[in-house]
Amino acid sequence: MKIVNDLGIDRITRDLSGAMWIFGRLREDDSSTATFIHRCFQREIWREIRLRDRIAMCAVLPAVPLVIMGVTAVFTALNGSAIKRRTGKGIIRQIREQIELALHCAILSPWYYIFELHDDDKKRHAGEYLNRLETKAGLYRFLRDYNGGLPVPAVRSTPCISDKSCFMARCREHGIMTAPVFFKIMGEKVTAVDWNGTGLPETDLFVKPSHGRGGRNATRWIYLGSGQYRRNDGEILTGTQLLERLRLESRQKAFLIQPRLLNHEDIADLANGTLATVQVMSCRNERGEFEVINAVFRMARKKSVIVDNFHAGGIAANVDIRTGELGRGTGGAWGATADGWYERHCETGVQILHRKLPCWPELVDLVQYAHASAFSDQVVIGWDVALLNSGPCIMEANKAPDLDIIQRVGGGPVGEQRLGKLLAFNLRRTVETKYNRPAP
Fold first, then answer.
1. What sign does the dihedral 17-22-26-28 (CA atoms) show?
2. pTM above 0.85, yes or no
């Protein structure tokens, strides 16, 4: 994802992809769940978005051909040669296919490579992929605002999902296992939470912003003894110095100081020195219950990183939600990571394929209980769950979970899978309740 932001393409693709979906022509196929979801975004979200966003989408329409060609050129340069070597598909043919998919399915070049649509079998199902613009910027919010067509409670859990300290407090109120917090530091005020001692605990620490995504600005501090801590980049501070630095930096953003957690011994060799997490999606189903529908295991590629973020160069493998068994590993395919799939960790050589995650039934039960008990006003949630020797531990939740990672590691689109069917069910009920008419 960093390469997209660095090139300034993220905002461009959002407005462009939105305009292409809003003004595009979708096939009239009532049997297709994916088409229904696309149509909901096309018709219902257009009614919901702000006037300035409508104007922005209309404004980019004349630039559609130029932007498509520009984005195609950038990502073909990054990935085209590697794909040609691996598949034999020539550069010109890749370019032609990217343009066709952009015009017919609103899929731009980054996702041509992420979803491996250069594979002809996958390309035949291109219309079944759900893209970031539809879900993260549109459909998730639509479902959240109207609670999937059910009565909207007076007090929502949404603010607690965005604030990590609030999230953890809410989890504790409902007996949900989550990571301890030694201190919260906000506005130069240091507040002890799970610590009654003087100064910092003499243990390894993990520091992260209270509001933040993707592990940005997180740091790891290894306790060296004698009151000193070494940061992941090598800097050494005393506990007093570290607290004072964070106190001053908290003028700009709040921080949480937590213990550094260690992976379950059965997966420690997969984690490459960093806490690995399982991204689990749960969604409200037809019975009003909350069902785990997809899961991805994320690992760090290199020991030098401190988070397992997929878009920052990490590795991910699909998890069979019935058994907890891992599929093959893969990178994000933004550019240099377009290196295909591997049965063993590409840096350590440790076996990935067919490994079974420990405590899997307990993880599924924990996520479903957490969704039902503490966050039942959310239709869909993406959970980050660590597997420790003590069992599964929820680290964070995301009210707008990313489907790129799920569709890539799962090897295909979710539009016609269980996730797509549940999204369609909740969207249909939302439209019928909001407008008192049948969904399109």
1. positive
2. yes
